Amino acid sequence: MGATDFTHRIIVCSLCRDSATGLRSGEDLCADLRSRLSAYQSQVLDYAIETVDCMAGCARPLTVAFQANGKASYLFGSIDRGTDATALVEFARFYASLADGWCNSGQRPARLAGKTLARIPAAANPPGQGR
């Protein structure tokens, strides 16, 4: 399956440095998320999990985004690879079930409380669908 075949994307900053260790953990988080989400292959969880060099969340590293065409997007910050991976997978499963991606803070995993940096409404006209 190519990257364009996926309907959902999880994007992780590859340049964010862990506040405590100074290490870049984005690639490791991606590998962890791929492994954890593969456990749900029987469900339709078609996520591309990739890195990007920066999402401008430098004040709140590690940043992680969730995107899908026609859905609201989310940007989370202050993500700890060790303690937040389970919550990110939980959110991935929930986000995939939402028709428009819209949810309130009480519906997101408790571990992600206070870590939502942005909820961006879906584009009115997704690319390739006219004006």
How does the SSE layout of this entry go?
Layout: E1 8-13, H1 26-38, E2 47-52, E3 64-68, E4 73-76, H2 81-97, E5 116-120
Parallel strand pairs: 1-2
Antiparallel strand pairs: 1-3, 3-4, 4-5
Helix pairs in contact: 1-2
Protein name: Metal-binding protein
InterPro entries: DUF1636
Describe, in plain words, how this protein is organized in 3D:
With 131 residues, this protein is an alpha+beta fold. The chain has a single domain (3-120), classed as Glutaredoxin. 23% of the residues lie in helices and 20% in strands. The chain is built from two helices and five strands, in the order E-H-E-E-E-H-E. A five-stranded mixed beta sheet has the order 2-1-3-4-5, with helices on one face. Helix 1 (26-38) packs across helix 2 (81-97). The radius of gyration is 14 Å and the shape is globular. The termini are far apart. The model has no long low-confidence stretch (mean pLDDT 87). This is Metal-binding protein. It comes from Mesorhizobium metallidurans STM 2683.
CATH superfamily: Glutaredoxin
Q: How are the strands of the largest sheet arranged?
A: 2-1-3-4-5
Mean pLDDT: 87
CATH third-tier fold name: Glutaredoxin
Tell me the domain tally: 1
State the low-pLDDT regions, or none: none
Q: Tell me the number of helical segments per DSSP (H or I, 4 or more residues long).
A: 2
Order of helices and strands: EHEEEHE
Structural class computed from helices and strand pairing: alpha+beta
Strand count: 5
Distance from N terminus to C terminus (CA atoms, Å) equals 29 Å
Cα radius of gyration in angstroms: 14 Å
The level of helicity is: 10-25%
